[in-house]
């Protein structure tokens, strides 16, 4: 794998296995408002475009459901209180970040997860390794728009030259394309290789160590 100077990571499905806590948050809101529960595999299909889109897919009728706003608020409150009950870094991730840091690389996280949760999870799991963490904010268009990556580069004080984006979804592939930087697609996350390839992915890794080359 090529050696880059700046590594920008997605969070859910790339650095952290968050799916069970996300599913618990969704079903907490579903229970509270008498809506059908979802399996972990359902939630796995729903994620990738931010938590509002996750809840639009989970709530029957989406935003047209009269209880949507309340269910969405319920999910956010529960998830902020339980965002790492079962969440952990994927095997090899901490070792990867330690080695990248030792090599003097710039490291950022760019996620469609809401800003507070992105910040909290990065503080909890990756303090000292991640230089910049960007989550969904009102003034920045979420991925696949390039805005959040551009903001991360600005905060790092670097350009997109010799930067790479690393993620597990079709949204990440499109984000990298919209930023004009390469994308490494990981195969331990929420999407499989065939799905990613159909959506334009062309560079894959099966373990974090492969990112180091």
**Ends distance:** 4 Å
Using the CA coordinates, give the radius of gyration: 17 Å
Quote the CATH topology of the largest domain: Rossmann fold
Return the string of H and E elements: EEHHHHEHEHEHEHEHE
CATH class of the largest domain: Alpha Beta
Structural class estimated from helices and strands: alpha/beta
Query: How many distinct folded domains?
Result: 2
**Uncertain segments:** none
What's the total count of β strands?
Answer: 8
CATH architecture of the largest domain: 3-Layer(aba) Sandwich
- Average pLDDT, all residues: 94
Provide the spatial order of strands within the biggest beta sheet.
5-4-1-6-7-8
Pathway: Organic acid metabolism; glycolate biosynthesis; glycolate from 2-phosphoglycolate: step 1/1
Keywords: Hydrolase
EC number: 3.1.3.18
GO molecular function: hydrolase activity
3D structure, described in words:
- This protein has 213 residues and is an alpha/beta fold.
- It has two domains: 6-17 and 88-212, HAD superfamily/HAD-like (Rossmann fold); 19-82, DNA polymerase, domain 1, CATH 1.10.150.
- Helices cover 43% and strands 15% of the residues.
- It contains nine helices and eight strands.
- The strands form two sheets. Strands 5-4-1-6-7-8 form a six-stranded parallel sheet, sandwiched between helices. The protein has a two-stranded antiparallel sheet with strand order 2-3.
- Strand 4, helix 6 (115-126) and strand 5 form a beta-alpha-beta unit.
- Helix 1 crosses helix 4 and helix 3 crosses helix 4.
- The longest helix is centred in the middle third of the chain and has 15 residues, at 68-82.
- The relative contact order is 0.18.
- The mean pLDDT is 94.
